[in-house]
Amino acid sequence: MENKHIKNESITGRDVDFAKWYTDVCRKAELMDYSSVKGFIIYRPYGYAIWEQIQNYLNRKFKQTGHQNVYMPLVIPESLFNKEKEHVEGFAPETLIATQGGKEKLEERLIIRPTSEVLFCEHYAKIVSSYRDLPKKYNQWCSVIRWEKTTRPFLRGAEFLWQEGHTVHASEYEARQETLQILEIYRLLGEELLAIPFLTGRKTDKEKFAGAMETYGIEALMHDGKSLQSGTSHYFGTGFAEAFNIKFQDRDNILKPVHQTSWGVSTRLIGSIIMVHGDDNGLVLPPHVAPIQIIIVPIQMSKPGVLESARLLKDELAKAGFRVELDDSDQTPGWKFAEYEMKGVPLRLELGPRDIENNVLVAASRNDRSKVTINRPDVVNTASQLLETIQTSMLEKARQHLHQHIIEVHNIDELLSAVETGYAKAMWCGERACEDLIKERSSATSRVMPFDQLSFQETCSICGKKAKKVIYFAKAY
Amino acid sequence: MENKHIKNESITGRDVDFAKWYTDVCRKAELMDYSSVKGFIIYRPYGYAIWEQIQNYLNRKFKQTGHQNVYMPLVIPESLFNKEKEHVEGFAPETLIATQGGKEKLEERLIIRPTSEVLFCEHYAKIVSSYRDLPKKYNQWCSVIRWEKTTRPFLRGAEFLWQEGHTVHASEYEARQETLQILEIYRLLGEELLAIPFLTGRKTDKEKFAGAMETYGIEALMHDGKSLQSGTSHYFGTGFAEAFNIKFQDRDNILKPVHQTSWGVSTRLIGSIIMVHGDDNGLVLPPHVAPIQIIIVPIQMSKPGVLESARLLKDELAKAGFRVELDDSDQTPGWKFAEYEMKGVPLRLELGPRDIENNVLVAASRNDRSKVTINRPDVVNTASQLLETIQTSMLEKARQHLHQHIIEVHNIDELLSAVETGYAKAMWCGERACEDLIKERSSATSRVMPFDQLSFQETCSICGKKAKKVIYFAKAY
Question: CA-to-CA distance for B271 and A326, rounded, in angstroms?
Answer without folding.
Answer: 42
